[in-house]
Amino acid sequence: MHVFVTGATGWIGSAVVDDLLAAGHKVTGLARSDASAAALEAKGAHVHRGDLDDLDGLRAGAEAAEAVIHLANKHDWSDLAGTNAAERAAVQTLCDTLEGSDRPFLLASGIAGFTDGVLTEDVPSPFHGPDSPRGGTENLALGYAERGVRAVSLRFAPTVHGTGDHGFISVIAGVARDKGVSGYPGDGANRWSAVHVSDAARLVTLALDKAPAGSRVHAIAEQGVTTREIAEAIGRVFGLPVSSIDPDDVPGHFGWIAAFFSGHFTASSAITQDLLGWHPTGPTLIEDLNAGAYGRG
């Protein structure tokens, strides 16, 4: 299958492209820079130059492909309104292009803000409309399942971990090094779901082949790792003391990531595992930390 992938050289996207190619798919990746284009070509993927603001370019990429996997996002925490608007415009363009074709459209989503309990695949996103998180694109995309698009939501754990990850765990480890203490919010009982990047990539390939229109699949290997366990592992690896951070001091200590590290983001993947025959085999988050995937002291 010829697959057009946005975010093809990002953390998750790079692993997804590798997995797709290994499975025999033809891949065209969206690339903003010469370096990104060269990285894709080195893997044997084709290159489509452009970015999320180039709607005509996105349309052309989707028109030329048999499937679209949308993993790109600006992730501009200083301009969330702009990030959400760009995301909605991109998804709208891609879905409009695929409408009536029965071609797959797989959309990167997440689990934050859905529920205080354990999120399951049968719980719909509460976010609708352009002003909501991610521009409400999960509901927007899944609405096209009734309009001739095999739309599937890929809900990723808040940490997709592994060597080379520059996401949330990398930021938290950086705060620990900068502050000289590996902290956790309050009693450290809040939990984060996690998945290794190799397992996440394999799930995407399986979803491309098997997931029905309108489905939600969970890239979740560990239902919930406590933030205290995460802080303790970071402390061990970097030789730092581990300490609770008073809730009032959390924003000042952790900065912009405080709201995430204080959150409770847990989910199950039982339905996904049964649906796709997907069974995570990669290392756990703590195993990755212990092995030095985020550096050593």
Structural features, described:
It comes from Nonomuraea salmonea. InterPro entries: Epimerase_deHydtase (IPR001509), NAD(P)-bd_dom_sf (IPR036291), NAD(P)-dependent_oxidoreduct (IPR051783). Residues 3-213 form the NAD-dependent epimerase/dehydratase domain. This protein has 297 residues and is an alpha/beta fold. The chain has two domains: 2-156 and 196-220, NAD(P)-binding Rossmann-like Domain (Rossmann fold, 3-Layer(aba) Sandwich), CATH 3.40.50.720; 160-194 and 223-266 and 281-290, UDP-galactose 4-epimerase, domain 1. 39% of the residues lie in helices and 22% in strands. It has helices at 11-22, 34-43, 55-63, 80-98, 137-142, 168-179, 197-210, 227-238, 250-254, 258-261, 270-276, 285-290; strands at residues 2-6, 26-31, 46-49, 67-70, 103-109, 118-119, 149-156, 159-161, 182-185, 191-196, 215-219, 222-226, 242-245, 266-267. Helix 2 links the parallel strand 2 and strand 3 (46-49). Helix 3 packs parallel to helix 4. The mean pLDDT is 96.
Gist?
It comes from Nonomuraea salmonea. This protein is α/β, with parallel strands linked by helices and 297 residues long.
CA radius of gyration is 19 Å
Helical content stands at: 25-40%
Spans of at least 5 consecutive residues with low confidence? none
The major β-sheet equals: 7 strands, parallel
Distance between the termini: 45 Å
Return the string of H and E elements. EHEHEHEHEEHEEHEEHEEHEHHEHH
Oligomer: single chain
CATH architecture verdict of the largest domain? 3-Layer(aba) Sandwich
> What's the count of strands?
14
Number of self-contained structural domains: 2
Instruction: Output mean pLDDT.
Output: 96
Helix/strand-derived class?
alpha/beta
Shape: globular
CATH homology superfamily of the largest domain? NAD(P)-binding Rossmann-like Domain
The side-by-side strand order for the widest beta sheet comes to 3-2-1-4-5-7-11
- CATH class value of the largest domain: Alpha Beta
Sheet-strand content, in percent, reads 15-25%
Number of helices: 12
- CATH topology name of the largest domain: Rossmann fold
